[in-house]
Fold these 3 entries.
Entry 1:
Amino acid sequence: SQNYGHFVISPLESGYGITLGNALRRVLLSSLPGAAVTSIRLSGIHHEFSAIPHVREDTTQLILNVKQLRLKSHSEDPVRLHVEITNEGPVTAGDLIAPPEVEVVNPDQYLLTADSNDVDLDFELVVSTGRGYSPAEERTRLPLGEIPVDAIYSPVKKAAYRVERTRIGQQT
């Protein structure tokens, strides 16, 4: 399918399966380029432990939901996505307004629920490209009001391998 790959490599000499499988798994999880949210800015919120007025989730829970976004970026430069929330109800990744060079792969990803029509929230996400993992602590020089987010750039979220015994002539 579009989100799953299954590969069979056989037959291999004894001991090669684990070596090859582990190397492929490590490369898939850590070395492929991808896109991720690196910071978030919420109107009126200055740190990640704040409550968001008229929103069911606090800032920490929103950041955890944002980290589940799967993005595809065709830009080498950081790109900003935004959404303005003025009505009550759920907000998903499909509600984000993205420039043409960024695609939200999982538009059904839940972000937050506004629990009142009095809500007036504007938030921006900064999407960057990279490889592997980048902790939020690496981004200390952000503009005031922008909250850093841990970024997992790899487009592959899970990789596993299985080695089975095969018989080649007299060898197993």
Entry 2:
Amino acid sequence: MEVSFVGAVAESAYQRARSVLRPAILNHSVRVWLVADHLGQQEGLGEREREALAVACLLHDAGTADAYDGPQRFEVEGADAASEFLAPYDWPASLVQKVWEAIALHTSPGIAERMGPLTRLVRLGVLTDFGAADPLGANYERLSASLGRFPRMDIEVVLGDAVVEQALRCPGKAPKSSWPGGLLAARLAEPGYTGVNPAF
């Protein structure tokens, strides 16, 4: 499913995401962007910041991809992947750092919400897509048709399993106090369990 983003760099980020992410995770990433961008426009985010937000949303789960399955937590691997992706575009280092933070902290409740617009908006987009927040309110209807173009495809199962599969191979990717750590602990407690991870 094609979609138009703000700026050529964001379009390239989408192509990168599409080339490495599982379809369910790609669709989730686009839905996160749709929500985050809508909220960002309401807050008066500028064009460059909107493009940076798109890159952060589209690549926020890049660390789950085989191409970026390094030794760090998937959030950090994804943040590093985004920074590497942005290197040829000569963006200001401060803006690249904001993208990095938005991705690295998107599973950190209570911190992401206080780290500036990009990090907060990515976090809100993620929470909204998983039904844990409703910042859209009455505006949801305006986005529902666009969101519906990108089916969920059991994203909760696919994403949870992707994080756990990496952690089983490399336990250092899932510290006990982290979201990946909780997912791994739940899997180890019930190794035969199928469906949405109880710690999701």
Entry 3:
Amino acid sequence: MVIRLLVLYGHPEDPAAFDKYYDEAHIPIAKKMKGLRKWSVGKVVGTPDGSPPQYYYVADLYMESREEFERMLASPEGQAAVADVPNYATGGVTFVYTEVEDVVS
């Protein structure tokens, strides 16, 4: 079963600075990690009920197993990417693993 690492970023102190740093600095660092099956990112644009969203930005990273994730994150490239997070995630960040099951294709 495919495993997803869901990265949920809280609202940063300076959204423009977050966006610039994430795009120009963090993505190039994180792209050096080997073995990702898929990686997607997105800015949270709202909630179904119109309430303020809890998160500002979301990243979805996919691999074949949690063990592969753990090896990747323990690599020098993975450690560099994780160490970079405090440089821009001023609103906090939550990491969760999920099992992915496609329901509709």
